């Protein structure tokens, strides 16, 4: 090629480079955080966790994970578990657990046994956690249809196979109420009145589903609630009790429950109404396989929340009651691994992380829209003892090693004070996600921010329903009206190279029996990692700009410490 050709080619290359750089600058997502515009308290709705298998609580990896969860939160974490009243030997199994708190002697007299349930609650209290104490499920001796009682479900089995004798209403409401009374009374004696007053007592789980085996589930549940709430209040009048923990789509059941508590005859007392100190429901997403790839369904989870809050807000008596999303997750079955349920293959990597960040932020927005008092959104995921590494359960850790999603909660734990205004050229808000989800060409790049006396924190994410990763997009983050001239800047990241034990495990060759050295490396990789070295920064006219490249399915936390 002659010299003129070389020069011509170079000019074309420079023009293309300039055009490309200009396109990148134009396509950068602009995010502005105004620290002077405070919106509402950054209520730690995320500091709530739950799981089916209560006996994992005091096992080795269970204790370890609970300690980590307690340590990441600036407030006491609430924990909700199933099977606290279920009969059995205390051995854990998937979607099963037991405490054997109630049996009867040969004459039908009650025998109360608190050792196992005490071990569960002791583990929480030692970590300054608060039980979201579930009154369920039915002890075998009190079940109106006791046999078969224990199920032996495993991944791949029909989900309905779990609804055995524990899921039936009591054969004797007075004996059942006496058990509840004695349990609450025992807790007051063991932990003290002030401690138990800080808990929430709830009845059952998803009573508008086969979790409650009854012909008229609403009528049966309301009767059970009358007896249960009366027993709790007799044992501790200042206790907080509520329900009904309906599934998604259970708005009519929720409405009927509220009407009963406000206006109908109480089956236990004969008076009008029943005490109700909080309301609870569940909200789940809907992932599926599309073109051999996982496609999430956040719209379903957010719609469940919107529809239930709409019902609660429609009653003046309940609009301002505390509300708990008792299970708030991308889908419904934590113990259904990705081998038997391939739509759950999102769980090990960063897609679970970006989904969690994006959905938590939108839950704040929906609550603000209705003016309701949402205090908790329970992440129904924990850990499974003695299971294969990274099997694809919906859990926060595997064999004692943290998954990427747990680091989202570590980020949230640093977001203190009040939420502040975030604006920008965003493609999605909660309503557009409900309407069409995040299926289009544009990914959901957005942020939530909080300001305290000593810090300004911004969590950013790049999310899409389709399980793909790429280099993402440039983001220009402008922090405005910062009240100090100098601060220290920290930038944390969850992506394929940071805060990600799963990618490290795969690079090791996916060992099912890691060496001690490999285990230590995995433990370290599971912790929240910095993207860059912390540095001192100086504000110009109260403003700081932070530029970054935000990969698809990644999460960043930018933290200014004053």
UniProtKB/TrEMBL annotation:
Residues 1-25 form the signal peptide. Residues 30-525 form the Glycosyl hydrolases family 39 N-terminal catalytic domain. It comes from Hydrobacter penzbergensis. One of its GO terms (biological process) is carbohydrate metabolic process. Belongs to the glycosyl hydrolase 39 family. The keyword Hydrolase applies. This is Xylan 1,4-beta-xylosidase. Keywords: Glycosidase, Hydrolase, Signal. GO terms for molecular function: hydrolase activity, hydrolyzing O-glycosyl compounds. It comes from the Bacteria. Gene3D superfamilies: Glycosidases (3.20.20.80), Glycosyl hydrolase domain, family 39 (2.60.40.1500). It holds the Pfam family Glyco_hydro_39. The active site is at residue 206. InterPro entries: GH (IPR017853), GH39_cat (IPR049166), Glyco_hydro_39 (IPR000514), Glycosyl_Hydrolase_39 (IPR051923). The keyword RNA-binding does not apply. SUPFAM superfamilies: (Trans)glycosidases, Glycosyl hydrolase domain.
């Amino acid at each position: 090629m002659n010299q003129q050709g070389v020069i011509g080619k170079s000019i074309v290359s420079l023009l293309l480079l300039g055009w490309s750089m200009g396109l990148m600058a134009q396509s950068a997502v602009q995010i502005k955080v105004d620290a002077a515009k405070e919106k509402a308290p950054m209520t730690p709705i995320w500091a709530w966790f739950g799981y089916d298998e209560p006996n994992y609580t005091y096992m080795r990896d269970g204790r370890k994970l609970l300690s980590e969860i307690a340590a990441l939160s600036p407030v006491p974490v609430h924990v909700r578990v199933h099977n606290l009243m279920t009969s059995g030997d205390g051995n854990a199994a998937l979607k099963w657990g037991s405490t054997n708190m109630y049996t009867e002697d040969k004459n039908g007299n009650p025998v109360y046994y608190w050792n196992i349930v005490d071990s569960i609650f002791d583990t929480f209290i030692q970590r300054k956690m608060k039980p979201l104490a579930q009154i369920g499920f039915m002890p075998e001796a009190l079940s109106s249809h006791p046999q078969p009682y224990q199920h032996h479900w495993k991944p791949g089995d029909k989900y309905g196979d779990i609804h055995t004798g524990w899921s039936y209403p009591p054969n004797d409401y007075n004996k059942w109420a006496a058990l509840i009374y004695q349990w609450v009374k025992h807790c007051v004696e063991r932990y003290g009145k002030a401690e138990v007053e800080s808990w929430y007592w709830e009845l059952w789980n998803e009573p508008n589903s086969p979790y409650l085996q009854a012909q008229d589930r609403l009528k049966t549940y309301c009767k059970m609630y009358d007896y249960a709430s009366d027993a709790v209040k007799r044992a501790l009048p200042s206790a907080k009790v509520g329900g009904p923990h309906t599934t998604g789509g259970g708005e009519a059941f929720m409405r009927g429950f509220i009407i009963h508590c406000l206006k109908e005859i109480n089956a236990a007392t004969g008076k009008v109404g029943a005490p109700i100190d909080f309301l609870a429901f569940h909200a789940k997403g809907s992932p599926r396989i599309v073109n051999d790839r996982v496609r999430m369904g956040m719209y379903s989870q957010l719609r469940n929340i919107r529809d239930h809050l709409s019902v609660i807000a429609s009653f003046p008596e309940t609009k301002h009651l505390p509300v708990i999303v008792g299970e708030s997750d991308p889908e419904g079955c934590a113990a259904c691994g990705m081998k038997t349920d391939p739509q759950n293959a999102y769980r090990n990597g960063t897609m679970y992380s970006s989904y969690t960040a994006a959905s938590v932020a939108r839950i704040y927005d929906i609550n603000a829209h209705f003016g309701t008092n949402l205090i908790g959104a329970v992440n129904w995921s924990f850990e499974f003892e003695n299971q294969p590494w990274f099997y694809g359960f919906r859990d926060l850790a595997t064999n004692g090693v943290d998954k990427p999603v747990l680091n989202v909660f570590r980020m949230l734990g640093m977001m203190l004070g009040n939420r502040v205004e975030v604006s920008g050229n965003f493609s999605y808000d909660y309503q557009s996600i409900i309407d069409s989800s995040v299926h289009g060409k544009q990914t959901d790049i957005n942020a939530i921010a909080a300001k305290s006396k000593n810090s300004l924190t911004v969590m950013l994410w790049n999310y899409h329903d389709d399980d793909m990763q790429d280099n993402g997009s440039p983001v220009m983050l402008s922090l405005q009206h910062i009240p100090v001239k100098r601060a220290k800047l920290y930038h944390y990241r969850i992506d394929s190279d940071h805060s990600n034990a799963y990618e490290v495990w795969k690079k090791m060759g996916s060992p099912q029996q890691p060496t001690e050295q490999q285990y230590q490396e995995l433990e370290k990789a599971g912790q929240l990692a910095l993207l860059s070295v912390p540095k001192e920064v100086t504000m110009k006219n109260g403003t700081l700009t932070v530029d970054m490249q935000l990969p698809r399915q990644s999460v960043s936390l930018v933290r200014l410490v004053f």
